[in-house]
Amino acid sequence: MASSHAAAAPFLLVLLLQLCSSGLALPSKFIDQTCPPERLPAVALLSNGGPFLCNPPAPRVPVAVFPHDVDPVQFALNLEYTEAEFFLHGAYGAGLDEAAPGLARGGPPPVGARKANLDEETRRVVSEFALQEVGHLRVIQQTVGGFPRPLLNLSADNFARVMDNAFGYRLNPPFDPYTNSLNFLLACYVIPYLGINGYVGTNPIIDGYKTKELVAGLLGVEAGQDAAFRTLLFRRRGEAVPPYNVTVAEFTDRVSALRNRLGRCGVKDEGLTVPRELGAEGAICTNVLSADRDSLSYSRTPAELLRILYLTGDEHVPGGFYPDGANGKIARSFLGKPRGANESPKN
Ligand SMILES: [Fe+2]
């Protein structure tokens, strides 16, 4: 017995070290206790690559991260912090300060985020996405470094302001994202989509093989999250959102129109249904995914994203989700400048 324990000790130590180094040491409240103990065949077979070639070819330009990659990729942390805190609080009632406090880098806790009243399916989806955001924050910081979490306003009041702006009048009662699953999904419609736009915009201006791989991986999951939210909403597109006499489809259309207005760069955002000429190949009004005339994701610059996320239509005037402004060199470069001043060439 003693010898079998001794033989197992190095293995357990290696396992523990692997868990710690991969950053998966989450507090128990974030660990799903309902997962079956046995591994499913599909993943059990994949634990070792065996004799097959699994490595990609060597990069043509052997530079992992160029200096000019750093600021645009770091800028994405602003959106990732917002998603992480909104999803973590919505699903678990606790944010980054409990899940992975080091990733907040000493930034202030968010204002007004709380646990949402979610049905089981929505809670599971949001929980998964929340944990994915922890991974996104970690890998971005590991690859290009980071900055402290900015002050985030995730209060019901702020989301109510978004919806009031979208509709052009005050919803009565004010919109509350935390009150039920449908409202939370509508609030989720507001944020991750902008992550897609941002990553599409970042891709052409970075050159390192590591940063390009990172942005492609982030874009894939952000797009998947947005698609999942939009699909869940699309199934309910004809329902009126209680107690408002407005359908889910109209809510999405209004939010997309608001983002286009605030972004001030034309149509880069579409609701769940569109006029046929704006649908895929100008032939369909179903619009589960928002995309351009070639069915490619729209791109936005940091300046456009900040105009929208600040709810001011001006990247120089903070507000909305970032009362003190977003963080990082690019976002801070806009603050303190008069409107109309030349934008940083990195925007
Ligand atoms: Fe993310």
UniProtKB/TrEMBL annotation:
Top-level taxon of the source organism: Eukaryota
InterPro entries, per database record: Pigment-catalase-like (IPR052965)
Keywords (A to Z) from UniProt: Signal
Signal peptide: 1-25
Protein name per Swiss-Prot or TrEMBL: Desiccation-related protein PCC13-62
Organism: Setaria italica (Foxtail millet)
